Amino acid sequence: MDTSSWVDTSLDLNPSSARPLRLEQTPKKESNGNLIVFGKKLSVKEETCNLEEELNRVNAENKKLAETLTAMCEKYNALRNQVMDLMSKSREKEISPSKKRKSENSDNNNNNDKNYNFGIIGNSESSSSDEDSCKKPREEIIKAKVSRVSVRTEASNTGLIVKDGYQWRKYGQKVTRDNPSPRAYFRCSFAPSCPVKKKVQRSADDQSVVVATYEGEHNHLPPSQMESTSGPSHGSSSLNPSRATMSLGLTKSNPSGGGEARNISSNKPEMDSAQVRQYLVEQMATSLTKDPNFTAALAAAISGRMSSAKSN
DNA sequence: CGGATTTGACCTGCGC
DNA sequence: GCGCAGGTCAAATCCG
Fold it and tell me: rRNA-binding among the record's keywords (predicted)?
């Protein structure tokens, strides 16, 4: 089947390309301020009316597209979860049960080698391995979700900053054996009430890719949401890698951004929450559609879903 | 001055 | 048991 081409064409979410505003229909303006439409002169009042009409139409179109995008994002999340399920299943088959120093370590290497191109690396339960649960029963039972997010950063950006909407406190840095670049260890600044940790390290293969590994789930809203919105609009406050990627997309368009968690609210203080939301949606769509790996991964997921639907 | 970051020391798990 | 490597601690330092 030809899912990839379908994805390529249908998922062109880039606002600039997906939304021709038909401004060419706007009547031409004459030097005296009047307009010529179909050979007829229009007054300034009529021009204002036309512009307002156009504005309303564009606003409605914008709203519709934003809704479409939101729905698409939800579908994307569902598909992503399926992809992660499939990937974790196939990984379980690949990994031999012996010669593993640490399950997390080799898992990490696998991901670095194979998966970082997807942007979102995984959202797998680390405690699913039988071996782990046997050797480290106490820790692994307690251990919460582990998810990985990879970010392509500006070449000039040498720091290990991954913007995901939360505030982090660095508590350590270590140079690991298999990677010349140091690994930074962060704790959620809401600790100890929030148990989430994150490890950030540049990919050994591609120095422009930063891999962030999240452990645990936040039990609070991100500071950016606490500040800018009166109430939570998201269904869950748990860590959502897709949202992390959304924020990360902003780093591309705002390479001069400052501290990680304060990025959105501090850079756009004049925006209301609706504008922020729309801005985020547009940025996410742009960053996603620019990434050929995302469309490829999505195509694979869709084809997998289709084939499974056929078999059912 | 208080909070965040840095960095060397220490702890712990794992393989040999 | 020893050595190695990843992870964490905590004192020193930095910064607003």
Answer: no
